[in-house]
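Quick one, tokens below. Sequence please?
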């Protein structure tokens, strides 16, 4: 549940009016490299949301680890809404393993670059691993996406073939993301761009209606006029063409590729095989607008992760070379850390220091509040101290019942403290 609108506005106004934030906005007008310090709890989520609102630019947040990225996405979605924040995760599979990335990860990666193509400023949270891994080019994305609109004409057989080429799996019934089914003049599709599957009813070769429907009941939820279909894979290639490429290699290599990559519907291993197959790829960086701003949460750890991925990949490459001499090298599969760091340095970027203070940057001076361990007397004493310091206080609970219980325990503060419900992870 998001913070109530009134509480969110008050919190945002309070944060944006701090001396440190005002100074940051002044610095970012003239400096490309800014250090900040003194953020605690979920304060960086407030900072990032306010930056996006005032700069009107896409903010790319880089965190060292996937768990930190997921937590930050949760906080940012509380403040900005789900549509304004995207997670661009890593594949979470090792190179040289014949395993396809989890469908959820692929969906999030493709949704992110699809949103970027719209040109609307957004917040993207990602990791070093994800930045090094390649994806569709802008041209491939544009050529692969298409709209289904009421009144449009489509040949059902051609539509089904197009969906298969984009990676959608044809099944008797559509229940999972990335699948579709055809029954007479009805085509059900569950694309990444929709929270529910869609049902297109045809009258002849024309789309008569498009409805969202429930997976559980299979009943219609609402009518829509248009739905956008985006690829299900980060590499879009017809299987017949892929088999022809495999057959162009020597017999041993062709047999290996047929056996391993064509062993499953998701074409396991295709992501890291792309350089060998001469399939053009790009990276998230290629999809970013020119005025994108980077925010690094812990630069030393981020740099360590860059190096770790390449080190681990090199070790795996040495192990696989004997059985697969033509395997692409890590340098062919991934973007180099140096090229990514050079790209970030050329953009406006903010580095959040995990420890210490910034000598020539911005220091916020926030602290994590101490735990009261369920002892209301300790919390009451903390509130009294904050009120003496004329601070605005927001007590945010995980749910409405917790909020009501706090109000019962602290009725004397009902008029002086903001009680609310929010999923913000940590206070400050």
């Amino acid at each position: 549940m998001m913070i109530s609108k009134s509480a969110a506005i008050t919190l945002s106004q309070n944060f944006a009016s701090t001396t440190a934030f005002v100074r940051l906005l002044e610095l970012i007008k003239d400096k490309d490299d800014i250090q900040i310090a003194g953020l605690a709890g979920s304060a960086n989520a407030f900072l990032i949301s306010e930056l996006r609102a005032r700069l009107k630019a896409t903010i790319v947040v880089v965190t060292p680890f996937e768990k930190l990225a997921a937590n930050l996405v949760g906080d940012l979605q509380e403040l900005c809404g789900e549509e304004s924040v995207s997670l661009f995760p890593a594949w979470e599979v090792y190179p040289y393993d014949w395993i396809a990335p989890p469908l959820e990860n692929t969906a999030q990666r493709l949704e992110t670059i699809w949103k970027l193509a719209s040109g609307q400023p957004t917040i993207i949270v990602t990791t070093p691993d994800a930045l090094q891994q390649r994806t569709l080019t802008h041209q491939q994305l544009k050529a692969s996406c298409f709209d289904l609109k009421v009144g449009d004409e489509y040949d059902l057989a051609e539509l089904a073939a197009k969906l298969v080429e984009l990676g959608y799996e044809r099944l008797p019934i559509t229940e999972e993301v990335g699948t579709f089914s055809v029954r007479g003049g009805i085509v059900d599709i569950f694309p990444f761009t929709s929270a529910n599957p869609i049902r297109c009813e045809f009258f002849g070769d024309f789309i008569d209606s498009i409805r969202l429907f429930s997976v559980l009941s299979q009943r219609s939820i609402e009518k829509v006029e248009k739905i956008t279909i985006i690829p299900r894979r980060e590499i879009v290639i017809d299987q017949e063409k892929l088999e022809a490429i495999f057959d162009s290699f020597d017999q041993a290599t062709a047999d290996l590729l047929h056996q391993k990559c064509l062993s499953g519907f998701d074409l396991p291993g295709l992501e890291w095989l792309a350089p060998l197959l001469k399939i053009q790829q790009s990276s998230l960086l290629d999809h970013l607008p020119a005025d994108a701003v980077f925010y690094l949460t812990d630069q030393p750890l981020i740099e360590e992760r860059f190096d770790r991925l390449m080190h681990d990949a090199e070790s795996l490459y040495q192990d696989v070379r004997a059985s697969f001499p033509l395997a692409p090298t890590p340098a062919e599969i991934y973007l180099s850390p140096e090229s990514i760091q050079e790209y970030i340095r050329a953009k406006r970027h903010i580095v959040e220091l995990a420890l210490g203070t910034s000598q020539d940057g911005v220091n916020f001076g926030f602290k994590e509040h101490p735990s009261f361990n369920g002892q209301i007397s300790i919390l009451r004493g903390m509130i009294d101290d904050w009120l003496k310091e004329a601070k605005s206080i927001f007590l945010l609970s995980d749910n409405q019942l917790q909020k009501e219980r706090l109000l019962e325990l602290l009725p004397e503060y009902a008029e002086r403290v903001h009680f609310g419900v929010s999923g913000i992870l940590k206070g400050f």
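The longest strand covers residues 206-213. The first helix runs from residue 5 to 16.
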